[in-house]
Write a structure and sequence with these properties.
This protein has about 375 residues and is of the alpha/beta class. It folds into two domains: about 150 residues, Rossmann fold, CATH 3.40.50.300; about 140 residues, 3-Layer(aba) Sandwich (Rossmann fold). It has eleven helices and 17 strands. It has a six-stranded parallel sheet, sandwiched between helices. It has a five-stranded parallel sheet with strand order 2-5-6-1-7, with helices on both faces. β13, α8 and β14 form a beta-alpha-beta unit. α2 packs parallel to α3, α3 runs parallel beside α4 and α8 crosses α9. The chain is globular and about 70 Å long. It starts with a strand and ends with a helix. The model has no long low-confidence stretch (mean pLDDT about 90). Bound molecules: zinc ion. Zinc ion binds next to α10.
Length: about 375
């Protein structure tokens, strides 16, 4: 199955130009009718993509790549690509630059292109607009993507080493053993001599305990409700020589609380690792996970499997008859049988079926 990648970090345009070149080089010995084309899009202004290549000796020429689809001159991105396919054009991949400027509709079109037409898409972009401002297109892509990754790792590693502590988000669908991994990590850190501080949002079922599905347990040092001021804990953390913070179910924190965790990392140099769900049963982010996707220093995906065998990234909600739910409130606590972790293809079939582009349903 093709995958949807969201790539952020330094050197995006250079990476795009090189990737396009590599795909095209693979065509060198093929007849015209067998050539597999790369389609490049610049979501900012439809103009040619240009990059000063930063790596190495800095003497490399500027990399450029013409665009193949101009968003300002088409109606539906899905229809545009699908019609090209129906006309016999083979498409190897779609590469998008400045993806933070995409509309939600275009982002969803890319998701359907990957999962219905089996074309890989690499969307390059920032996770927010300039100045940390929410980008609806970037968020929709991060919600729907198989993988979110940094490019230019070497540069970032160097920067992070200098910076010290960081805010990390370990995200996954249900059944990706998030809480068990948190408890293992706490144990490992404590054995290595760290003073670990455990936080979790309040929940009726299990007010102060952090409990994994396989029965591991630990008491939370702080139970968070919507009014808890996390930055205010800073003095306490210092007095008690806390040097690592782990947060369970971080998707339920408020945006302000995530920002306060970033401040704790920055001002007190204490690493914070958050564990949580990326999206709800309709594929939309929670308040805490959304802010973490935008601002965490690193994002780490925890894997789990769909019943069909593909990697699961969504959590579908089912009722007692096993029927998929397409509406309802965002938070309904799992009673052990009302959620199922599924892959994009199964999610489209069972939950997002009404959003499948009309042209695709008609032709099929
Ligand atoms: Zn599946």
């Amino acid at each position: 199955m093709a995958k949807l990648y969201y790539k952020y970090g330094n050197g995006k345009s250079a990476d795009l130009c090189e990737t396009a070149y590599n795909y095209e080089e693979a065509n060198a010995y093929l007849n015209d009718k067998d050539k597999r084309h790369v389609l490049v899009i610049n979501a900012y202004d439809d103009k040619e993509i240009m990059s000063k290549y930063m790596a190495g000796d800095n003497k490399n020429p500027i990399l450029t790549r013409k665009v193949d689809i101009k968003l300002s001159s088409i109606n539906s991105l899905f229809d545009e690509v699908y019609l090209r396919m129906l006309n016999g054009i083979k498409i190897a991949a779609i590469l998008v630059d400045n993806s933070q400027y995409l509309s939600v509709q275009h982002a969803e079109d890319l998701f359907f292109i990957v999962n219905l037409l089996d074309i890989p898409v690499i969307a390059y972009g920032d996770r927010t607009l300039r100045g940390d401002v929410y980008s609806a297109g970037a968020m929709r892509l991060m919600e729907l993507s198989n993988t979110i990754e940094e490019i230019d790792e070497e540069y970032l590693k160097k920067r992070k080493k200098a910076k010290g502590a960081k805010l990390e988000f370990y995200y996954g669908a249900m059944n990706s053993s998030k809480t068990a991994k948190l408890l293992y990590k706490a144990d490992e850190l404590e054995k290595a001599g760290f003073n670990v501080f455990l936080m979790k949002p309040f929940s009726d079922r299990d007010p102060s305990m952090i409990t994994s599905r396989i029965g591991m347990q630990a008491k939370a040092d702080l139970v968070i409700n919507n009014n808890t001021k996390l930055y205010g804990e800073g003095e306490y953390l210092l007095r008690n020589h806390i040097n690592y913070i782990l947060v369970d179910e971080a998707q339920f924190l408020t945006e302000r609380q995530i920002d306060e965790l970033r401040q704790i990392v920055r001002d007190y140099d204490i690493p914070v690792r958050c564990y949580g769900l990326k999206v709800d049963f309709l594929s939309n982010h929670f308040t805490g996970s959304g802010r973490l996707l935008e601002t965490a220093d690193s994002l780490v995906k925890l894997r789990t499997i769909c019943p069909c065998g593909e990697g699961a990234i969504f959590n579908a909600r089912i009722n007692s008859n096993g029927e998929y739910q397409k509406s309802g409130s965002q938070v309904v606590i799992d009673n052990g049988g009302n959620y199922i972790s599924i892959c994009p293809k199964c999610f489209i079939e069972n939950v997002m079926d009404e959003k499948v582009p009309k042209i695709y349903r008609k032709v099929r």
